[in-house]
Design a protein that fits this description.
heterotrimer; A mainly alpha (102); B mainly alpha (247); C mainly alpha (112); A: 102 residues; mainly alpha; Helix Hairpins; 3 helices; 0% strand; elongated; B: 247 residues; 9 helices; globular
Chain lengths: 102, 247, 112
């Protein structure tokens, strides 16, 4: 197993962990953390497949994509956290509750 | 009591289903990764053969700002959108800090800020030759901005008045350069070869200013300009409290 | 770059991959949100090392500054706001409100 294959598999497992945690936890900040972990897993997979090159320099196109992805992820996280704080301010809790028939 | 059992049963069922589906997805992806076909060098050879006309020497910067410049333009737009979203999600003006900051923080600020600005400028410049570029430099300058806001250094009036322009200047510069190249060469964002390096540096400099201010504002979590947000506060508060109390 | 690695490379990459996975698992299973955010910051730093191992130095710079530093600071600020809001709610109402989420040494419940 080469280095890049190991990191690609780690990226896939990170994506799985992030998606599972996104579903089962009810606290909003935990969900945002899980999304970030899943995003990091996807980036790791992209760059690891970019490193599986025969030349000395890895492929720069996935590097640019992941750089864009990191910046977009941080802006989405900032917006999501601002919305979570706002939800807490308005409803009094930052947890998603079960749907109750009202 | 039966309802509580039902709730816990539902959540356990959901947990099992989530675990099974995530395991299935992970194993399919892992098997795909394991059996990926051998890498094809086509994209890499394309980039390497076109480096001469890109105007820079770092392949990642060439791809980011020249070959796939449209993605970077949209990315800067997304940053601006996130800042606007944070502005609208937080109606009340942001108070930076209520207590006086500790003298250690002030000393740290005095020592670190010159180096932060210097290193940010260096990494912006070196993006042409080595790993670096606008986003890394903008992030480092934003770290300086975060230090300033945790030390509760207030924005002065000039900074508050020029803040909207500084937030937008990256996107505006990029669009102006793109439209100008469209008028000169006929294609959106196709730089003339002789000026490609200069144009990339201009775009990156404007983008660095924009990125650093937007990231600092994302950290502050609202509009630091109290005069603008105070006007809207009454209207927003009445909309939200309409369901609960009478105003 | 894609030849079979020697023992030192394999050991370093194996330990780094294991650290990344363990950090991700621990950070998402811990009921205390403050601990989760601190683990997330160190997760970001381990990812930065992984980028360097994959010869992506630009991404390592960006991840260390934006991913670990800025996102960690964002999370900590949000946790502080949530905790302050919960305290404010408790003071205002006087009745037993929702448990204070995000206090550094208080548990806030994991999965519901």
């Amino acid at each position: 197993m080469t280095i890049s294959l190991l990191y690609a598999l780690v990226g896939v497992v990170l994506l799985g962990i992030g998606l599972y945690s996104l579903v089962i936890y009810s606290h909003l900040v935990k969900k945002i953390l899980a999304l970030n972990v899943a995003g990091s897993g996807v980036f790791l997979f992209l760059v690891a497949t970019a490193a599986q090159t025969t030349g000395p320099v890895p492929d720069p196109v996935p590097h640019a994509m992941v750089l864009t992805g990191i910046v977009v992820a941080v802006s989405a996280t900032a917006l999501a956290l601002a919305l979570a704080c706002r939800i807490h301010q308005v409803t009094g809790t930052a947890r998603l509750t079960e749907n109750e028939p009202e | 009591m039966s309802r509580e059992n039902e709730d816990s049963l539902t959540s356990r069922t959901i947990k099992m289903m989530a675990a099974i589906s995530v395991l299935a997805l992970t194993s399919v992806l892992g098997w795909t990764v394991w059996t990926l076909p051998p890498f094809s060098d086509r994209m890499q050879r394309l980039v390497a053969s076109n480096m001469a006309i890109s105007g820079v020497e770092n392949p990642v910067t060439a791809v980011l700002l020249n070959f796939r410049g449209y993605d970077t333009l949209l990315e800067i737009g997304v940053l601006l959108l996130a800042a606007l979203g944070v502005f609208s999600a937080v109606p009340s003006p942001v108070i930076l800090s209520k207590s006086t900051p500790s003298p250690i923080l002030n000393l740290l600020l005095r020592l670190l800020l010159p180096f932060i600005i210097l290193i940010g400028g260096y990494i912006l410049w070196i993006g042409k030759y080595a790993p670096g570029g606008a986003f890394q430099a903008g992030a480092i300058l934003a770290a300086g901005g975060i230090l300033l806001s945790t030390a509760a250094v207030p924005f002065n009036r000039f900074a508050l008045k020029t803040m909207p322009f500084a937030m937008g200047i990256g996107l505006v510069t990029f669009i102006v350069v793109a439209l100008a190249t469209m008028m000169v060469r006929g294609n959106f964002l196709q730089y003339p070869v002789a000026q490609a390096g200069t144009l990339i540096l201009v775009i990156e400099a404007a983008a660095t200013i924009s990125i650093s201010i937007i990231l600092t504002i994302l950290f502050i979590g609202g509009n630091p300009d109290a005069s603008i947000t105070a006007k809207d506060e009454n209207s927003k508060a009445s909309i939200i409290d309409k369901g609960n109390t009478t105003k | 770059m894609d030849e079979f690695p020697n023992l030192a490379d394999m050991a370093f990459d194996g330990i780094l991959a294991l650290a990344v996975l363990v950090l991700a698992w621990k950070l998402l299973r811990s009921p205390n949100l403050f601990k989760a955010v601190v683990l997330f910051i160190s997760f970001g730093l381990m990812m930065s090392l992984a980028w360097v191992r994959l010869k992506a130095v630009d991404i390592a710079l960006a991840e260390a500054a934006i991913g670990a530093g800025l996102t960690g600071a964002l999370f900590l600020t949000a946790l502080g706001k949530l905790q302050r809001g919960a305290q404010h709610n408790q003071e205002n109402n006087g009745t037993h409100q929702q448990s204070q989420e995000g206090r550094p040494n208080m548990a806030s419940g994991s999965s519901d």
